[in-house]
Amino acid sequence: MTVTRPEPQRLDELLVDGFRQVSGILDERRSTLVADPVLAELADRVAAAPDPESDEVKRALLYAVDSRELSGAAEAVQYFAHRFRWAWLRDEVERRHLDSLTRVDHKLIRHYERMLEAFSPVWEDRDLFPSLDN
């Protein structure tokens, strides 16, 4: 009898599933404090990956940046933006922000501004995510 093991989940799939879980927590509990451990675990997985800036990680985060499905997309991106401060992620969010300014889409302008604020070392909403203090 051959035992088949389930395929290990790809990192991008794991992240997107985690972002969905965060969105569910935020929808139900309306608390970043409750979602924080999930985000911390996802970020720890990324940090432990052989290439934390792999195409898989980029794909998952850009999915969150562009998602209309994930209600917690901004919070997920903010968390990763503040923890890792990747230039590529900032560039991508800035590009989308500029586009929303050009199109005068006020909802998206603020959405991207919230993400961009998280790149600051003195981000004022950092205290909404206790694990970022470690």
Helix content: 55-70%
Could you give the order of the helices and strands? HHHHHH
Low-pLDDT stretches = none
Count of individual helical segments: 6
- Structural class by sheet pairing and helices: mainly alpha
Total number of strands: 0
Q: Please compute the radius of gyration using only Cα atoms.
A: 15 Å
| Binned strand content | under 5%
Question: How would a textbook summarize the main sheet?
Answer: none
Give the end-to-end Cα distance, rounded to a whole number of Å.
Answer: 47 Å
**Average pLDDT value?**
94
Shape: globular
Molecular structure report:
Helix content is 66%, strand content 0%. α2 crosses α4 and α5 runs antiparallel to α6. The mean pLDDT is 94. The chain has 134 residues and is mostly helical. The longest helix has 19 residues. The protein is built from 6 helices and no strands.
Structure characteristics:
6 helices; mainly alpha; 134 residues
Short description:
This protein has 134 residues and is mainly alpha-helical.
Topology:
Blueprint: H1 11-29, H2 32-48, H3 55-66, H4 73-84, H5 87-102, H6 106-117
Helix pairs in contact: 1-2, 1-3, 2-4, 3-4, 4-6, 5-6
